[in-house]
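USER:
Make up one protein:

ASSISTANT:
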Amino acid sequence: MAGVWDIRRLRPLTEAALTSLAVAVCYYAAGRLGLMGRLVVDGVVFTPIWPPTGVAVAALLLLGARVWPGIALGSFLVIASLTAPGPTTVVTVASNTVAPLCAFLLLRRAGFRRDMARLRDGLSLVFLGGFGAMLISATAGVGLQVAKGSLDRSEFWPVWLAWWVGDTMGVLLVAPLLLVLAGPAGRFRVRRWKEAAFLGLTTLVLMPMAVLSPMSMLFLVFPLLIWAALRFQLAGGVLCALFASVLTTFEATAGRGAFLHLSDVEIMVKLQAFNGSAALTALLLASVITEQRATRRSVRRACEELAEVLEHLAAGEPAAGSPPEPTESRSAPPGGHRDP
């Protein structure tokens, strides 16, 4: 019996360890992908989109706080692939772990739902999980560079802004997509497949044209984002925004298309403004449409139930679920005599 109890106790620990290891692998893979689109501004390397933050927040929302060791391990592996680990690595790993944990705790306290079927869920992810919690990693990371002397104090705010926006974009673009993929699959009619294919082909043609054109035609991307969010809600809107942001980031790193003949600072500002606008447009519009459709379905069900009740009342039958009418009993009059 002792052996059986030991196995039962070890099984949750083994599952937690394997889950954390899987999160670490995903975090590291996302980090390597994010480093492919890095920019250098005033000698400082930053990533306009940092996917590991989105992976970390999504993993915490789906699997719980028990996977935080996997986030820490993944962060350490990413740093070790860039430079030799040192004493400052502990601070960076801690900040990269604490920021997603704070995002998870803030979202849970705000009543965040993973299906993001309400506008408040989208707003919570933007302002609590993205803008708010990522202040921790940006402040700790850039502050550490200033404390080491590898960064001047005058460069703190530009680098801090780039770091903060990169982490935030990871939360706003990657985390919703992972939550959608992990959720239940809905019905998808053939008519929607045709529209989705047409939207995909239009995106593949029009979006590179808007990004690669030297005439700065990035505004052509937003009708596609609105179309995707209106018709395919969170999955379509976020996927379209992520594709646009990744494509624009690679063109910005090469200094081509809409980023031709711009300085490093101008490229950073323009790219961050575009990525932020695309993410907010897709995420918030998709949340609004999803909430409206859920409200419409609730109203329709209530109307159907009310119509069923009225039909039963018109037919003189008790409605389903209604209590039976009380039966009137005749009692004897005072004095113990009954009417003949």
